[in-house]
Amino acid sequence: MRFRTRFTPAACALGLAGLLAFPAMAQLPMGEMAGADRDGNGSISTQEVRDAAAQQFARLDGDHNGSLSQAEFVDARLEMFSALDADGNGEIDRSEMRQAAKAARRKR
Q1: CA 55/CA 50 separation, integer angstroms
Q2: Three-state secondary structure of the chain
Q3: Using CB atoms within 10 A of its CB, is residue 14 exposed (0-12), middle (13-18) or buried (19+)?
């Protein structure tokens, strides 16, 4: 049996935004993450997630043409890599991955 998954543009945008934003989000203080909670009710709604994803996409779309070029995508990934590469040696080891995960848990 084969399963076929269809990804809507919105789902792709949310997934891409999450994938690209992970290190940055892991380093944000809770107050800044709470910025996504626009109505201040203590939770983040689907619409608030969509709005945050749209803002993230706009930030990544350097030439503001409504799409991400390969260069824009690679630049974002390199930014993520640099955020994880704590010692700046050009490699991410298990210790650095664990540090990033711990930092993300502490900031929740």
Answers
A1: 9
A2: CCCCCCCCHHHHHHHHHHHHHHHHHHCCCHHHHHHHCCCCCCCCCHHHHHHHHHHHHHHHCCCCCCCCCHHHHHHHHHHHHHHHCCCCCCCCCHHHHHHHHHHHHHCC
A3: buried
What tokens were used for 23?
């290190």
Going from the C-alpha of 24 to that of each of 15, 18, 38, 52, 77, the distances in angstroms are 15, 10, 19, 13, 11
Minimal CA–CA distance to 108: which of 34, 19, 45, 50? Answer: 34
Q: What was the pLDDT predicted at 43?
A: 81
Give me the pLDDT at residue 28, please. 44
For 25-42, how does the pLDDT look when each residue is reduced to its tens digit (9 = 90+)? 444 444 445 677 888 888
The residue with tokens 């399963």 is 3
Phi, psi of 4 (to 5 degrees): -115, 130
